[in-house]
Each structure stands twice: as structure tokens, then as C-alpha cells.
């Protein structure tokens, strides 16, 4: 097989509003802590060619995906659907226009972004060379805890100890996967992927630095350790219910924890790079499926009645844009107006989304445009045909959380509120529908 790697700088200008942590916060960047990248990996066998680009941003819109694929196909002649675009989900980068109210996107940045992503893929193709591939699964601990089923993060002084572990490590990823590529003629490393499921965020709503959170910083540091240019892609796994062990702390504490957690992750990946064993990767395949996930539908009169309740809160004498609760109401009101308009104009609220799989020998990457929860990933892993199935979130779009059936049943932020950040309605049976769709995709390319 052949492999090629490349990367393009996608760091926004200082002053850009940052994404995450709450609606209409106006959290503007003041400093570039670490650059953000779109990193491309091109793969080619005798009968299949595909490219994966991992981006140090929170997510992408369907428009960004469409424009990037169109330009990529025009420039290379490869099929548009052969390009998979993945995001690491940093909250210390640009909003990228994916969520209502969670950071105001910069229009010039949004217009340029698809072409930069496509260029990373194009450059990776230009760097294709005969390659060998190695893989390792190694311990990766002391990074995350399950925020849905575990207790809250302990004090900072505890999590900074190298001995710290969550109360329920079995509800998190405790290993990471490393895939390493060598130039077949020289034996030199040309690129690598690391896969791990944990919400990447260490820095909080009080920080204003641009960076890729612990995953981006660890990858940048690992790339610098090689004698010749090497590109490393971070692949975000099932992180919908797993936080890093440091969240929502003051700025200085967050920045301290950021470096510590990045170092822990880099150490695990470094171990994987050393232990990776070569395997037969001559079979390269990819497939794309369009699927519909059932939504909890509501009638227009019901939606208008609820919208009127929201709008009444704007008319109160004491209404203030500084009220955090009112800002949340604004998100819902904006969403309800869009949903009502979609229904009245005949648009489909259950429009298809795309999932995509890439097979590299024994390894299968299964990507979906959600923050997927661990239970779903575990069930896919248990039933997949692939020897090494890796479920990836935030791929080819960003549609909020995909809660497991337990979280969905009890409701709350992930199940009931986040859909309105995407101007859509909550999922009715997302767990089983996505799981079955990913297993079907896995079976096709295995």
C-alpha cells in the first residue's frame, strides 16, 4: 500500500471568538498557545484510494464538508466521498459556525476553511509513497472520567498526581491505539495516528488562549520529537460522556493541568510508537452510508405555544442579556423559530446524515458526526466484524451528542438541550439506530 501525510495551518487570528462552555459568552482569544492544524493522511491500495483529514477545531458544518469535497475532487480526480473530515473538538479554537450561540463565527475564516482542509488532503496525496504499517494498543490512564456515571472531578492537586485514577475507570478508555506508517524504502516514520476517547477540554470558559487542548498540544509535541518531518493525526473516539480530569477551573490552574494532561497522553502515544508491530495493511477500503435518525417530533401549534413562553421572558422588565439563564432561553427560542420555519416550508427534520468507514487491514475507522457515548462504542466494538474497530465521533459534521439509552431515558443537557444548539429536535432512539448503522457499515468493508 501507499501512504502520504501533510498538514496545513488553520490557526485563527487573535481576537477571534472561541467556542464552547455556554451561549453568547463573547470569549475572545488573546494569545496563541499552540497552532491549530488540518492534518491529512492519504491511503492507497491497488483498487482503493481514500484520505482522512483531522482538524484541530470543534466541528464542521455540512457546507464546509461539501465545499471541501468538491474542491478536493476537482483538484485530484478522486471521488468526493473518498475524503473523510474529522475534528478533535477543541473548545479553544474557532466556533466554525456549528452551534447556535456557542461563539460567533468569523465569516472570512469560515469561507477559507473548506479549501484549507481540502489542501491538506491534496498535499497528502502528493506525498504518497510505498509504506508499511504498524499498530499497538497501549495503556493510557489518568486522563478522563465519566461525567454521566462517575463523581465530579476531584481537586486539582489530586488529579495532578501521577497516581490519580477515576473511581470508575472501566467507564472510560484506559488504552489508546497508535497506528504508525514507515517509508518502505528508508524505514523512516512518515506519519502516525493516535486514537483515544475523551472530551479534549482542559481549559475553561475563563481562558482565552488558542490551542488544540491536550490532544492537539500532545500531537504537536510528538511531531517535534522526530528527526525528519512527521505528521500525527489525533482521532477522537467516544467522548460524549467522558471529561478530562480537569474542567471548569480558573485560568492558571487550567493552563497548568493542560500541560500535565498533554504530557500524559504524549507519553502513552510515545509508548505505542515504540511498541507498534507491523501488520498486513494491503487491503484499503472505504464506504459511506446516508442514514436517518428518528427525532421526537412535535406539531407546529405545540412548538409555537412553547416559543411564546420563551419570548415572554424577553418582555420582563428585569430581562437582561447578562442573565445566563436568559441566554439559554434565547438559544431555544432561536431554534424553535428555525424548526417551525422548516416544518412550515416542508423541510425534513430527519434529513439524512453521513457515516463513513475506512478499513486499513485489520483496523476499521467508523466515523459519525456526533459526540458519541462510551456505551455505544463498547457495543459496536463487541459486535463488529473488524478485529480492531475504532468508533470516531465528530466526523463529516457535528450534530451534538449521541446519548446512550440510559442517558436518553433520564433526559437532561445532552439529550434534551443540545439539539436546540443545532436547531433540531431530540433523538428518539439514537443509541440503537446509530449502533446498528455503524455495524452495517463495518460489515460492508469487512
Describe the 3D structure.
The radius of gyration is 21 Å and the shape is globular. Strands 1, 3, 4, 5, 6, 8, 9, 11 and 13 form a 9-stranded mixed β-sheet that branches. It has a 4-stranded mixed β-sheet with strand order 14-15-16-18. It has a two-stranded parallel ribbon with strand order 2-10. The chain starts with a strand and ends with a helix. The chain has 11 helices and 19 strands. 34% of the residues lie in helices and 24% in strands. It has helices spanning 62-76, 107-126, 156-159, 213-224, 251-275, 300-314, 324-344, 374-383, 405-410, 413-421, 430-445; strands at 2-9, 31-32, 37-44, 49-55, 83-87, 129-139, 144-146, 175-183, 189-196, 209-210, 231-236, 242-244, 277-279, 284-291, 353-360, 363-367, 371-372, 388-392, 401-402. Helix 6 (300-314) runs antiparallel to helix 7 and helix 8 (374-383) runs parallel beside helix 11. The protein has 446 residues and is of the alpha/beta class. The chain folds into 2 domains: 2-283 and 352-409, no CATH class; 300-344.
Structure keywords:
nine-stranded mixed beta sheet; alpha/beta; globular; 11 helices; 446 residues; 2 domains; four-stranded mixed beta sheet
Amino acid at each position: 500500500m501507499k501512504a502520504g501525510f501533510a498538514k496545513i495551518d488553520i490557526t485563527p487570528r487573535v481576537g477571534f471568538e472561541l467556542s464552547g462552555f455556554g451561549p453568547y459568552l463573547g470569549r475572545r482569544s488573546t494569545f496563541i498557545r499552540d497552532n491549530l492544524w488540518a492534518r491529512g493522511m492519504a491511503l492507497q491500495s491497488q483498487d482503493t484510494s481514500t484520505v482522512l483529514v483531522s482538524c484541530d477545531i470543534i466541528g464542521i458544518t455540512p457546507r464546509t464538508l461539501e465545499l471541501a469535497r468538491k474542491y478536493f475532487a476537482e483538484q485530484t480526480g478522486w471521488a468526493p466521498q473518498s475524503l473523510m473530515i474529522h475534528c478533535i473538538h477543541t473548545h479553544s479554537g474557532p466556533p466554525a459556525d456549528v452551534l447556535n450561540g456557542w461563539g460567533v463565527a468569523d465569516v472570512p475564516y469560515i469561507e477559507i476553511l473548506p479549501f484549507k482542509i481540502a489542501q491538506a488532503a491534496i498535499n497528502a496525496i502528493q506525498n504518497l509513497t510505498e509504506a508499511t504499517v504498524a499498530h499497538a494498543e497501549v495503556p493510557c490512564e489518568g486522563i478522563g472520567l465519566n461525567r454521566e456515571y462517575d463523581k465530579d472531578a476531584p481537586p486539582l492537586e489530586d488529579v495532578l498526581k501521577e497516581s490519580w485514577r477515576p473511581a470508575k475507570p472501566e467507564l472510560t478508555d484506559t488504552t489508546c491505539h497508535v497506528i504508525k506508517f514507515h517509508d518502505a524504502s528508508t524505514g523512516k516514520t512518515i506519519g502516525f495516528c493516535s486514537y483515544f476517547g475523551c472530551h479534549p477540554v482542559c481549559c475553561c470558559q475563563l481562558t482565552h488562549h488558542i490551542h488544540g487542548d491536550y490532544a492537539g498540544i500532545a500531537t504537536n509535541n510528538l511531531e517535534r520529537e522526530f528527526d525528519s518531518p512527521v505528521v500525527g493525526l489525533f482521532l477522537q473516539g467516544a467522548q460524549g460522556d467522558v471529561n478530562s480530569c480537569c474542567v471548569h477551573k480558573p485560568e492558571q490552574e487550567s493552563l497548568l493541568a493542560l500541560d500535565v494532561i498533554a504530557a500524559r497522553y504524549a507519553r502513552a502515544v510515545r509508548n505505542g510508537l515504540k511498541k507498534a508491530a507491523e501488520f498486513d495493511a494491503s487491503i484499503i477500503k472505504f464506504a459511506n452510508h446516508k442514514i436517518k435518525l428518528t427525532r421526537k417530533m412535535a406539531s407546529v401549534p405545540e412548538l409555537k405555544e412553547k416559543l411564546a413562553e420563551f419570548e415572554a421572558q424577553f418582555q420582563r422588565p428585569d430581562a437582561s442579556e447578562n442573565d445566563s439563564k436568559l441566554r439559554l432561553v434565547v438559544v431555544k427560542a432561536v431554534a424553535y423559530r428555525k424548526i417551525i420555519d422548516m416544518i412550515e416550508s416542508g423541510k425534513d427534520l430527519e434529513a439524512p446524515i453521513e457515516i463513513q468507514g475506512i478499513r486499513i487491514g485489520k483496523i476499521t475507522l467508523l466515523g459519525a458526526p456526533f459526540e458519541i457515548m462510551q456505551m455505544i462504542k463498547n457495543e459496536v466494538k463487541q459486535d463488529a466484524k473488524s478485529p480492531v474497530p475504532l468508533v470516531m465521533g465528530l466526523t463529516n459534521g457535528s450534530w451534538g451528542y449521541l446519548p446512550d439509552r440510559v442517558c436518553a431515558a433520564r433526559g437532561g443537557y445532552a439529550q434534551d438541550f443540545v439539539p436546540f444548539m443545532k436547531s433540531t429536535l431530540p433523538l428518539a432512539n439514537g443509541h440503537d439506530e446509530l449502533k446498528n448503522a455503524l455495524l452495517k457499515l463495518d460489515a460492508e468493508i469487512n
